[in-house]
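Lecture 7 notes. Example A: sequence first, then its structure tokens.
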Amino acid sequence: MTVLLFGFEPFLEYKENPSQLIAEALNGSTILKEEVKGVILPVEYEKIEDLIVTKIREMKPILTLGIGVAPGRAKITPEKIAINYKYSREGDNAGKKYKGEKIDPLGQDGIFTNIPVEDLVDLLNENGIPAELSLSAGSYLCNNAMYIIIREARKYNSLGGFIHVPLHESYAARIQRPIPSMSLDTMIRGIRLSMEFILTNKKENLTFS
């Protein structure tokens, strides 16, 4: 069994992406006897679905967790729901934009994660890691990835979800405007703790509605 951890490459003005750094840092580690496989996703609508579907089919992980950066957020924010919707004012790394199309024309309008995100938020805060629940993963690549992750995890009766993180401090310090941030070490600890918590409680979470 494995844990599949997706991060994203840099995009738009953000020349470093903490989700990539977290996935790389945790790649090859072991959490509760499960090996973590970190995979970096391109910020391209036309590529991420095939990559996510292929990796989940190949690895059949017990948990697939996506991570993305949410510039402007100050806390780690586990996401509750992914919506079947693509909209972007800015293009992806290939210049592609969408104006309200569905991710999956045959899919549900929204899919809830089967990760206990409410309890996860409490756990992170209790361990000194600022966290809050998010009810919107947006409409850009993170929401797109989350929708596919949850959809595919259902096929294997496994766990799937998504967590947004702030910008990391070392990069935020180089941006010429005020912006919330968090230390990379704290975010790595937060994601590791999240995976431990999810795996510990996995039996209660393997139900879908």
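Example B, a different protein, same format:
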Amino acid sequence: MNVSIVIPNYNGERLLKKNLPQVLEAAEFYQEKTGSKIEVIIVDDGSTDFSESVISNFLAERDLASQDKSQKLEIIFLQNEKNLGFASTVNRGVKESKGVIVVLLNTDVAPEENFLIPLIDHFKDPQVFAVGCMDKSVEGGKEILRGRGIGFWKRGFLIHSRGGVNKNNTLWVNGGSGAFKKNIWEKLGGLNTIYSPFYWEDIDLSYRALKSGYKIFFEPKSVVVHEHSIGAIKSKYSVSEIKKIAYRNQFIFSWINATDIDILFSQFVWLPYHLLKAISKVDLYLLSGFFRAFILFPEIIKSKFKARVLFIKKDSDVIASVNEAIF
């Protein structure tokens, strides 16, 4: 299958120098082994560092070094005029892509050479929408295996967490290291920009896909190294602002995607409790997140009705499918 690798970038000059060569090596390996076409699309989201120079110089050097122009990877460099956030940047890259499958890789991700073949193999099933990679996540000097997500609804919220990597079912595919079927992506409407600048947009897209009857998987043989601590988010935003955005988007996700009557009732009953508890504990993060979400309520309702058109499964069915073993 023809593949497009989309890399969103914001002030990632150091990460691009470090990881882009490994991305291209993996792309060339896939192209050589399968005979499929592959392209790499880098979308810069209004960077203020030297990302543009790094990418331009890298492409120029690559052109000079290339002996066989016919076998050369196609590398496309797009630039946003201003910083738009993760969802808009990724959506632009996917829209410009020509591949049947789109692989999303953040700049802080370095893939192993053969990571694409086991990832793409899942898409022989036309109902598969997305497949996630095994993230060897570097955190505090330790390596933690991530990539599979689990979750459950509690007191009106979806509570999500890292799942064990010994199964291949998952609640979501990470937008920083996963593969997606482009025609289904377009049918679902891609990443919802209501979550901008970041967080929950990939969980939202995966959850909508599952409720619409599509399949998503986790592939432990498709390995990437992910250095979370040096990505763009933590370099641009304070810890307190990240928490406020995360709370806001948790409210947004829950209000958009919940359709089961018991969950809707739970949201109505437990919301006063959450707010009163936050007030009593002076939890400004949750309170700020709620009010930021509430301001967007008209847009949330529009997103909810748009998503419901495709839903054929209940929330309880989605959660049950994640809790069942597939291996």
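Note on Example B: The radius of gyration is 20 Å. Residues 3-236 form a domain with the Spore Coat Polysaccharide Biosynthesis Protein SpsA; Chain A fold (CATH 3.90.550.10).
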